[in-house]
């Protein structure tokens, strides 16, 4: 059974000269490519723009990374298990719209609206799991269908109009102690939860086993279909939390909210060292991947780089991340 400690980065290098300092450095850079890239990126941006390392700007980077990171933590579960989820952006937006609908249109208490919004995303994830585990649909198709359905439902509920959040929810978009954004705290908490699930629970071990070899996982006694239900239900729940965070940040639920965020979430997971083939990935790597995307966008904005060129740069970074993963597996 594959576990987090069985990732390629933990293999012993038994080739001649593998114990020398140059080889050790090379091995470290390959195994920690995302972290190394983040450090280099921060250093470069700090040198070319004096405003980058200011406290205000770094907290802004954290806020920008929060929604993507929370979505990506959920997507990590699916990718580790050899699947994918294209619906997380739409599910996040749908959950945000339902939060606004429950608390504003229906006049429900804020805490109840938050719970129902999380249940909305969880139900969408559960439906994805049912279609994949029992309907035998490929994850790509099932979640693509949910992407469209959730986006359509939120337009039906909102009638295509933004829904303002009540004052009782405004605290979620504020700073604690006047400086630490609530979104950053939620991101850290969700990251810790994701890490605990992946490394300390039976479900996490099952994700690695299924992603490593689904047939072998089944033969070893893992109830694969039940685990897929759990996996995609978790993805939906994380997407709902991301939707709540996004809604609180904007102070309103937007019908067009989180469009394209599923691509950023998948990119963050891949940049963070996960393999789309399954069996490899961890929450810390996903967080680093989300931070790289946020730092890139923030730094390019500070340098007045066109938004069009920013997309080109991010595409190149994703390609390099996949190439690095391929190189790491060959060594």
Keywords summarizing the entry:
two-stranded antiparallel sheet; disordered N terminus; 331 residues; 4 strands; 2% strand; 13 helices; transmembrane transporter activity; mainly alpha
Number of helices: 13
In round numbers, the mean pLDDT is 89
Number of strands: 4
The secondary structure category is: mainly alpha
> What order do the helices and strands follow?
HHHHHHEEEHHHHEHHH
Using the alpha-carbon principal axes, give the shape: globular
Main sheet summary: 2 strands, antiparallel
Q: What is the count of distinct domains?
A: 1
CA radius of gyration: 20 Å
> N-to-C terminal Cα separation, in Å?
22 Å
The largest beta-sheet arranges its strands as: 1-4
Spans where pLDDT lies below 50 across 5 or more residues: 1-18
Helix content: over 70%
Tell me the fraction of residues in β-strands, as a range: under 5%
